[in-house]
Specification:
Shape: globular
Keywords: Carboxypeptidase, Hydrolase, Protease, Serine protease
Number of strands: 14
Family: Belongs to the peptidase S66 family.
Radius of gyration: 18 Å
Strand content: 15-25%
Order of helices and strands: EHEHEHEHEHHEEEHEHEHHEEEE
Strand order of the largest sheet: 6-14-13-8-9-10-11-7
Pfam family, one: Peptidase_S66C
InterPro entries: Carboxypeptidase_A_C_sf (IPR027461), Class_I_gatase-like (IPR029062), LdcA_N (IPR027478), Peptidase_S66_N (IPR040449), Peptidase_S66C (IPR040921), S66_fam (IPR003507)
Protein name: LD-carboxypeptidase
Largest sheet: 8 strands, mixed
Structural class: alpha/beta
Helix content: 25-40%
Distance between the termini: 6 Å
Number of helices: 10
Length: 312
């Protein structure tokens, strides 16, 4: 995939919820870092009730995505924020257009729906990474910004290790080393697409999961649904990201530990490595992950190795 060049043009899109007038501020943020910002029209829109959680109509949000990918001048497509509604675009997404014009696509949370569809039908690496309004304008800690920019501009190559900051302290739930395609994202969105043409393909994969605002019993049910659907059968290793706002009266680090027994129940007998406490998702910092890329998970090292170039 072509890397984003210094001074390149970045299209700001809002495939899900409204950006609350953040698109111009996001453009200033990009331009302060030497890029040219192209604010797509739906980022400035907001639907009326009951669809007021959407940034513009489905047709307008879809048109923004297609225009951003089709334009030869655009070097990357960066989501303003998540929220709700990305799944509404999937049935009309032009995967042939996307395959013809691969470029860095960045987002997470509700954007997981688009990542899964692109992994299934477009076949290029996409980036589970910080969004302009939701993370970068909100001041997420380093290396949230620097790691994302290094990855999409081609500074992180084959053989590089992706390691969390020292204070993240990943938890080795099941020790081991495994290689596969990195796939996944938001657990609720992964489950929501089950039974659709865009459901997750977990064969030969390192599965990454994260979530926010899901109580422990719901996380248990979501994992159980995927297990019952056979989606854990081809998994080679598991990376457990941030699980935040679990609705319990304890700090986030302690609350994160409540998820681990649920994960271990599903994966202990499978004998595959599982690493918890990985700082990607709704926590702070939010480390970028190259979805669709071949990686090696080493729980002892507490890191991922890139086994292919992701942007050149």
């Amino acid at each position: 995939m072509p890397a984003l060049r210094p001074g390149g043009r970045v299209a700001i899109v809002a495939p899900a919820s409204a950006g609350r007038d953040a698109s111009d501020e996001a453009a200033e943020w990009l331009e302060a870092r030497g890029f040219v910002a192209q604010v797509m029209p739906a980022t400035r829109a907001r639907m009326d009730s009951p669809y007021d959680y959407l940034a513009g109509s489905d047709a307008d949000r879809l048109a923004d995505l297609h225009a951003a990918f089709a334009s030869p001048d655009v070097g990357a497509v960066w989501c303003l924020q998540g929220g709700f509604g990305s799944w509404r675009l999937l049935s009309q997404l032009d995967f042939a257009l996307l395959r013809k014009h691969p470029k860095p696509f960045i987002g997470y949370s509700d954007i997981t729906a688009l990542h899964l569809a692109m992994q299934r039908h477009a076949g290029f690496v996409t980036f589970h990474g910080p969004m302009l309004a939701q993370d970068l304008l909100a001041g997420k800690r380093e290396p949230t910004e620097s790691h994302l920019l290094a990855m999409v501009t081609g500074q992180v190559g084959k053989g590089a290790w992706i390691s969390p900051t020292p204070d993240a302290m990943p938890t080795e739930l099941i020790p081991g080393v495994a290689s596969g395609r990195l796939i996944g994202g938001n657990l609720a969105l992964i489950s929501a697409l089950m039974g659709s043409p865009n459901e997750i393909d977990t064969r030969d994969s390192i599965l990454f999961i994260e979530d926010v605002n899901e109580a422990v019993p719901r996380i248990d049910r979501l994992l159980g649904q995927l297990a019952a659907a056979g989606k854990f059968d081809g998994v080679k290793g598991v990376l457990v990201g941030n699980f935040t706002r679990l609705g319990v009266q304890m700090d986030e680090a302690q609350a994160q530990g409540l998820v681990y027994p649920l994960v271990l129940e599903q994966f202990r007998a499978r004998g595959i490595p599982v690493l918890g406490g990985w700082p990607s998702g709704h926590g702070d910092p939010n480390l970028t992950l190259p979805l669709g890329a071949r990686v090696t998970l080493d729980t002892g090292r507490g890191a991922l190795r890139l086994d292919q170039a992701v942007a050149v």
